[in-house]
Design goal:
Number of helices: 13
Number of domains: 4
Largest sheet: 6 strands, antiparallel
Strand content: 25-35%
Number of strands: 25
Helix content: 25-40%
Radius of gyration: 21 Å
CATH topology of the largest domain: D-amino Acid Aminotransferase, Chain A, domain 1
CATH superfamily of the largest domain: ATP-grasp fold, B domain
Distance between the termini: 48 Å
CATH architecture of the largest domain: 2-Layer Sandwich
């Protein structure tokens, strides 16, 4: 069968890599893809936002299954378009994808079905938002209501930063809308639970932990993610997360007449008062994808098709990781504000390392950076400490110039927990 994957980053590179291992697959296409993905798939020069162009390609090539990696096509309604033409697509409808594309919508859904989250208020007026922040005090969390490429959340520790955040989101309107969700600041350890979902059916994947801040010790601005690992030895609340978060939200969306199909991402936090939902995303996390898929002993395509086949009975279940995995993001200097691109990056051969490309292109004899997040360096093994050492030893062997940077503390919380046992 023929598979179409939509996106261009490391997540889509990993999805193509995993799909290429399926016994069912004959051809994989990735739109728009990147130069490194052509080792496992055929690159299609169609922008992810050109949903009509993607539709025509899928019809012409008689694509059997489309998998959407990135968020923007979801907001544009690509799933609705494909389904209307009888095409099989693993992605939520435009309305169901509002669980990510509108923070306000997500908070309302959670409140109505009893999912615990931070207290919040939504604002479209700058002065009203400012007065609310002044009354509430800091620290406080300000979220752009819509999509913002992982840069729409600001944790303000002082009033100046909080006022600056609402100025960016409401007055400067840099993300294309004027609505913010202002939440109480929660303390605890964050983690991610990803599921493959079709209506009220799901396959739950192992816990993972992303590292959002740009620099070591969780300092610096929020990013799309600087590294992740799977699974999490320090987090023992899997069944509770399924019962209190996953089942209620997918049931609620079905009741609302917008059943969810696709990758459901639950960003969670374990607080002193229990599990709280930080956010939902309507697609696979990045870089969580790159550390989860390598440790799943499944045929991903077969799993998706079985989940979506309503003619057969299905029992929702979980899949456990067969080993440990860690990925560290190499980023361009200046990321996330003003990344410096166009710099050569070399990859020594190492059969124990996976390299998933996010922002690169091949020029003449080597890869050069084209974006903020450049690549994710991934290792797999039975012991998290050994896996971590393999990743960082490989990064040392890359002899990166000062035009790149990376966090040196990915996985430190898990290792600290293991050392204290």
């Amino acid at each position: 069968m023929k598979i179409l994957i939509i996106g261009r980053g490391a997540r889509e590179h990993c999805l193509a890599w995993k799909c290429s291992q399926s016994k069912l697959v004959s051809d994989i296409f990735v739109a728009k893809g990147n130069h490194a993905i052509n080792k496992v798939a055929t690159i299609v020069d169609i922008e992810e936002t050109d949903i009509q162009g993607l539709l025509q390609f899928a019809l012409m090539e008689k694509i059997d299954l489309t998998v959407v990696g990135t968020e923007t096509p979801l907001e544009l309604g690509i799933a609705d378009l494909f389904v209307a033409k009888g095409l099989n697509i693993f992605a939520p409808s435009k309305n169901a994808a509002k669980i990510e594309s509108s923070k306000d919508f997500a908070k309302k859904m959670m409140k109505e079905c009893g999912i615990q989250s931070a207290d919040y208020r939504t604002f479209t007026d700058f002065e009203e938002a400012k007065n609310h922040i002044t009354n509430q005090g800091v620290p406080i969390v300000i979220k752009n209501d819509g999509l913002a490429a992982g840069k729409g959340v600001i944790v303000a520790k002082n009033l100046e930063d909080a006022y600056h955040a609402i100025d960016i989101f409401l007055n400067k309107n840099i993300f294309g809308e004027k609505k913010v969700v202002i939440e109480e600041y929660l303390e605890g350890e964050e983690f991610t639970l990803m599921c493959l979902v079709h209506k009220d059916r799901f396959v739950a994947l192992p816990f993972s932990q992303d590292h959002k801040r740009a620099y070591d010790n969780d300092l610096g601005p929020n990013t799309g993610g600087m590294g992740a690992y799977c699974d999490m030895p320090q987090m023992d609340c899997y069944d509770e997360s399924i019962e209190k978060v996953i089942k209620p939200i997918i049931h609620k969306l079905s009741l609302e007449g917008i059943p969810f199909t696709g990758f459901l991402y639950a960003g969670l936090m374990m607080t002193k008062n229990g599990i709280r939902v930080i956010e939902f995303n309507a697609r696979f996390g990045d870089p969580e994808c790159e550390v989860i898929l390598p440790v799943l002993n499944i045929d991903l395509v077969e799993t998706i098709l079985t989940l979506m086949d309503e003619s057969k009975e299905f029992t929702s279940h979980r899949i456990t990781a067969i080993s440990k995995c860690m990925g560290v993001v190499i980023a361009s200097k200046g990321y996330p504000e003003k990344p410096v691109i166009g710099n050569e990056i070399l990859f020594p051969k190492d059969d124990n390392i996976l390299v998933f490309h996010a922002g690169t292109c091949f020029k003449e004899r080597s890869f050069v950076s084209t974006g903020g997040r450049v690549v994710v360096i991934v290792s797999i093994g039975e012991d998290l400490k050994i896996v971590r050492n393999k990743v960082y030893n490989y990064i040392d062997s890359m002899k990166l110039s000062d035009q790149f940077f990376y966090r040196k503390d990915i996985g430190s919380r898990a290792l600290q927990f293991l050392n204290n046992q």
